[in-house]
Amino acid sequence: MNLLLFLAGLVALVVGANLLVRGASRLALSLGISPLVVGLTVVAFGTSAPEVAVSVGAVLDGRTDIAIGNVVGSNVFNVLFILGVSALIVPLVVNVQLIRQEVPIMIGASLLLLVLGLDGRLGLFDGALLAGLLVAYTVFLVVQSRRETAAAQADYVAENRAAEPGAWDAKWPAQVALIAAGLACLVIGSDWLVDASVAFAKALGVSDLVIGLTIVAAGTSMPEVAASITAAFKGERDIAVGNVVGSNTFNILGCLGLSSLVSGDAGLTMAASLLSFDIWVMLAVALACLPVFVSGREIARWEGGVFVAYYVAYVAYLILAAQQHDALPAYSAAMLSFVIPLTVVTLVVVLLRGPAPRPS
Fold first, then answer.
1. Structural domain boundaries of the chain?
2. In the predicted model, is pLDDT for residue 292 greater than 70?
3. CA–CA distance, 291 with 294 (Å, rounded to integer)
4. Distance between CA 165 and CA 149 in Å, rounded?
5. How far apart, in whole angstroms, are the C-alpha atoms of residue 246 and residue 227?
6. Are 193 and 16 within 8 A, CB to CB?
7. Cα(122)–Cα(263) distance, rounded to whole angstroms?
8. How far apart are CA 67 and CA 86, in angstroms?
9. Which CATH class name applies to 2-353?
10. Do 175 and 26 touch, CB atoms closer than 8 A?
11. To the nearest whole percent, how much of the chain has pLDDT over 70?
12. Average of per-residue pLDDT across 271-290
């Protein structure tokens, strides 16, 4: 029964995100708002809406570990699994703006979360700071978008054009109805997902944090999975990468910012294991993007394979640690003394070589 509830919640989140993006995009374009601005704000929010719904819902239910674990786990999942699988399908082109601007901002947001969490909680001030930075970041993107070339805006209009005059969703009442239906699905889906996840945690004997870092994180990242892998199959490889990087920044600033504000004076308590391990993994994954992205400005298939392998290793560690398995010490020693150092050396060599010339 809990599995059915979890799957139903997951479906409701994906459907709700799609309805919200479609309705909000159509309404914004009908009102004459720039299509580029719609993409940078409405669509970016839509793909991260499940994370917001689940994290805020978990806080309201008193499950702060799920709220924080969902965001940290989603960010790790987005880079290692989604980009890894997408790169295995086809090598992913990395836009220069991502290397120069978006990835450093993602790394900065990850560092800020680590610093804010050093006292063991995210309070109202922390939430206000994160939310304020999200607003500032959005305004910055809107101002920056006005400098885009006419060709770039035309490309975006072609992909995200307003509804045809005769279409059923061409009128604003239908567009508002789509938004309302999307929000309703997100609220209902988040409740189901959180309830089922808590039941899983109790049945498996693991903490809410582990469930949030794994099952819930993967579940709420389904819109990003669909968007990035579909973009990779279509050859829109820059979209596949940009979607992940943008979502990670929004998850930290938006999801945790709103969750901290909703938590009130109590704030969000951060587990010791989160501060000593999982947030550092999230930061390391963000930092690893720079040398990988710089190398020829693409994510090669072998790099995608490494990403996926590391995600499997990360989940395996969480499971072994949760069960206090006898194999945990040997597994940890192998990762710390061989696998991770070898990967770090490889990334440093790749970074020092610099970007390879791209074929004309």
1. 2-353
2. yes
3. 5
4. 27
5. 12
6. no
7. 9
8. 27
9. mainly alpha
10. yes
11. 78
12. 87
